[in-house]
């Protein structure tokens, strides 16, 4: 039985190229004024201004793409944990192509996140609104309450260059506020004492912000005399997006794509995840006539309820039907199109006691933010949140037969397998953080959605957890940052050796292990696209890092090699737990130690197959009739750092002490043979 994960990533296929050399023309549309001008031979620039009186929805009317493959296997009863193996799993193949967009009406929101298109975002702000952003930051640093209030951008201009064509949109009166936790500090102020822009910051843009909440006080907009305008503003979108999140490269990721790649990997497995891309970013202080180049930012679709809709419209999501089927479900609020979506704070464990009294809708001023903050059905203050509470009661029992009736375990196993390779130390398993929970409208079952994966694939800047998580294996039962035991949900499901959920989790681990997604060449393909598009504009008026595959963080190559080796170590010795037994081949291995200055490739092992390595050598340097050594891959110690336990002749495939051989001279002939599968070692000294 082949489990197909179909059409999961909205990558763009190429269309026939069109040239635009006709005379300039001007047309009026319901979304504002559209102007088209020729800007060079074979080049076209098209712009749309969305004025205050024409602030309705701006979105294309093209139909959704038809999946390229058919006949997905659907597990009808999602309370049953499937028993397929890794050979039954097919991930969506990587495809980073960039389609040719014939005209502005054909631009889709996916195009905004395609790294082959050059995206630029420029915002105009008055000094008074920047001062309010600074006041909001001061409020947070003194109270630790994150205000949800937006301030006014006079306008936002978004430009997308696709091959020879350039498309532009200007949206007036857009909401803007800061986002983030550790990034909101006095060391990164919005403005300095002179009122000029002072540093890089993370921001959220809201195209549909109405500024009418009572928390705005004197700044509150009264729409009572403009019901039509209010309706247009409340439903205003850009390419189907109600807003955009923008983050500067605070973690100094030289690749600029690690978090983007993480989102693509989740999507490749049929899981809901944000679209993310890159953009040039500029802030213009209109009162001072000053413009600030903010460099290259990462842009995201917001983690809100529309994320569910867009994923179901454009992808085949595991154990979901279409968007039309989901919104017609009977679970959750009776008058909603969505199930119940919650954004969770740090400290969640998904048990009822953890939830009880800490579920609800947060306040705009940030003085109240529940642990489980509901993002749907926010107007009903008496809503019961019964679906989430039922999930919490099931998780609290520790009984898998109860848990699987409320939490989609197939979805959870796949999610956690991806999260293992992504390696975010600030996720649900490692730090009880950065998670959304969605209770499906179709059947009332829950799924977890990882968000904020900005510490993916070996990021160590400002917070180095286990050398960028390269020491954390797929079956580790401790939280990586603290060393505390993981929450019981993991112990009772995917980390319970031999259980159905454990076997399914390891099947997904193995499928990912063998996929093209975890190959250097695939990552480097996307990196090169991003570099070619944005390398010339990566510098900023403040802080920035250039494009590089190697930086102060762990490289993608070293990170993935280490994580895959940990998987191989476990699966080779525990094939009965699930997944597929690996062949024990770790590539080139070498001895490094006192005999060669702890580096170099002058003592190579020979691989005999079936996990067996051997070496026969005479040591060049011996001190006190002994040598000390370890085993690596000849490229340092980040990926392989093994030793031998002489007390039981066992290969130790993790960081440990040196192996010390005594009774050795520079005339000794030493033969070492070991198996990476059985871990048995044989040493002969002649």
From TrEMBL:
InterPro entries: Spore_coat_CotH_CotH2/3/7
A Pfam family the protein falls into: CotH
Keywords: Signal
Compositional bias segments (type: Low complexity): 27-70
Coiled coil: none
Segments traversing the membrane: none
Keyword Signal included in the entry's annotation: yes
Region of interest (Disordered), residue spans: 23-71
Signal sequence extent: 1-19
The name this protein goes by in its record: CotH protein
